[in-house]
Amino acid sequence: MKVKCLSTTGMGLNKFTMSNSRDTEQVKYPLKKDDIYTIYGQHIYNNVLGYLIIGTYENLPSWYPAELFEVIDHQVHLEWYYNYEEDSVISALWGYKEMVLTDNHYDDLIERTDEAKRIFLKRKKEIDEFIEYT
Q1: Does residue 116 carry a pLDDT above 90?
Q2: Cα separations (Å) of 87 from 38, 45, 46, 90, 92?
Q3: Phi then psi for 90, rounded to 5 degrees?
Q4: pTM of the model
Q5: Domain regions of the chain by residue span
Q6: Is the CB of residue 101 less than 8 Å from the CB of residue 29?
């Protein structure tokens, strides 16, 4: 799945998203308007849909509110997984196998542990190759 960046600040978010993501209108994301980004995962966190993206000025992924983007390629990777937990802060999670099925991988990726980074970079390569050949 690919998206085009529509906004790089909190001005691109509605009040519900700002409140639930704890962002403000002044927040500046490490993104570039009109750039195209690959989605490596999706989640619903605090009732806000977010995308796992490597920003323009990053070398590892971060979660960004979906409202900042427009979907331009709707196809997801063939080996994506999904989980739903109604009573969790992260109520829904889509992505590569370890993201969804391995305990703590989600948190470890946010914490940038070596193992989580290694797994992410392996899955990123697979997803990038899939997108390139479809």
Answers
A1: yes
A2: 29, 11, 11, 8, 10
A3: -100, 95
A4: 0.92
A5: 2-132
A6: no
